[in-house]
Amino acid sequence: MSDNINTSIEPFAKKDGGLVALDVHAIRKDFPILQTKVYGKPLVYFDNAATSQKPKAVIDRIVHYYENENANIHRGIYHLSEMASEAYEGARNIVQKNINAASRGEIIFVRGATEGINLVASSWGRAHLHPGDEVLISGMEHHANIIPWQIICEEKGAVLKVIPVTADGELDLEAFQKLITEKTKFVSVVYVSNSIGTINSVKSIIEKAHAFRIPVLVDGCQAAPHIAIDVQELDCDFLVFSGHKIFAPTGIGVLYGKEKYLEAMPPYQTGGDMIQAVSFVKTTFKEIPYKFEAGTPDISGAIGLGTAMEYISGIGRTMIHDYEQKLLSYATEKIRQIEGLKIIGTAREKIPVISFTVAGAHPLDIGTLLDFEGIAIRTGNHCTQPLLAGFGVSATCRASLAFYNTIEEIDFFAESLDKVIKKIRS
Ligand code: PLP
């Protein structure tokens, strides 16, 4: 272990000069699943980039909804339906406030980041792309931000271009500058890599794209749990994220879009609740966001998402960030010392996601043996096959941490990792 890493969870300095500490042991009590055992050993959950665990506040809110408020929304004129509608629309207000959107119409509830990107690629792309146009993504994208663009480009005769990734796992911004031309019609880029943890300079990408009047979608899936997002400050035109990565349920997510774009886009799906009037001759649609929310949505999911966002705000974004950075440097230093271990992705700015390979040990074997120690990590390509191919590997082990993880867990992880690697090599 490096001498200059402080293993204690020290109080952080507050702006007013006082000191405040993130009490991780108190926070862990909010997450029932963290008290469970796996094969008789305490669960060490290091797969937060895949999905996060849920605090009791979120679980309780969903139970409360089903026990007291369950009804379909927007349609009933009776008390329960009004309560359900109010809770659902209240969640929209919470999301709006949390990401500082200019209006609540700009917040569309979707199934997750995947659906949000598909919505934009399909609706915006179909209306605006023409043969020879170019869409720019990066070499660091999750498959969810590659395939929808590939498909719409094929359909419209447009060309998909890719911002290269450097050996450290950062976006090559000089290359980006050269790739952006009069032909570029859309930029869709990941804020934070799920695979290697890089935090990209999306603000500067947005500024450069806007100089050419090109709209930018930011895939905020991995940023949302770790970084405070202010869409007006970023000036992104679209943003997507998934609830389940930010301590909310699966099946709910958010698409933020600037009003001027959403209003000009045709509906993605059609059906109930998104219409003004229907006849066999013509249908007219509701205003945003409802135009994009066809059918019965995930009502309890949206409500749970609102609660999760309030829970995070309650802890404090700065405190979470500072604590997670400590976890990241401690874990990086600790595992770096294991012989033959190589960290994939060493960008200057990272969230606590560490991808690595180990000479003489397959990621799958490492993951399987760690599981017997109660440690959950992810192995594989993390839905980023092109990125890993660029690093010359097809799979890595990935430890992804959240604010409820501890230094003690990292110690146990590093010790167990060392042990399983020796076992595999023996
Ligand atoms: N984008 C990124 C960066 C991700 O990490 C993920 C999921 O891992 C997605 C998009 C897709 O998210 P979901 O499966 O929740 O739609």
Q: Which architecture of the largest domain would the CATH scheme give at its second level?
A: 3-Layer(aba) Sandwich
User: What characteristic shape results from the CA principal axes?
Assistant: globular
Q: What is the structural class?
A: alpha/beta
- Which percent range fits the helix content? 25-40%
Q: β content, as a range?
A: 15-25%
Instruction: Output mean pLDDT.
Output: 95
CATH superfamily membership of the largest domain, which one? Type I PLP-dependent aspartate aminotransferase-like (Major domain)
Number of domains: 2
The distinct bound ligands, ions and cofactors come out as: pyridoxal-5'-phosphate
* Number of contiguous helices: 14
How far apart are the termini? 24 Å
Give the low-confidence spans.
1-15
- Tell me how many strands there are: 19
Biggest sheet: strands, sense, closure? 7 strands, mixed
Strand order of the largest sheet: 6-12-11-10-9-7-8
Can you tell me the CATH topology of the largest domain?
Answer: Aspartate Aminotransferase, domain 2
Nearest-angstrom radius of gyration?
22 Å
Question: Can you tell me about this structure?
Answer:
The chain is of the alpha/beta class and 426 residues long. The chain has helices at residues 24-28, 56-69, 79-99, 113-128, 147-156, 173-179, 202-211, 231-234, 259-264, 299-315, 317-336, 363-371, 385-390, 407-425; strands at 12-13, 19-20, 37-38, 41-42, 44-45, 107-110, 134-138, 159-163, 184-190, 216-219, 238-242, 253-257, 275-278, 283-285, 341-344, 353-358, 375-376, 378-380, 396-400. The strands form 6 sheets. The protein has a 7-stranded mixed β-sheet, sandwiched between helices. α11 (317-336) packs parallel to α14. Residues 112-114, 142, 144-145, 190, 194, 219, 221-222, 242, 383 line the site of pyridoxal-5'-phosphate.
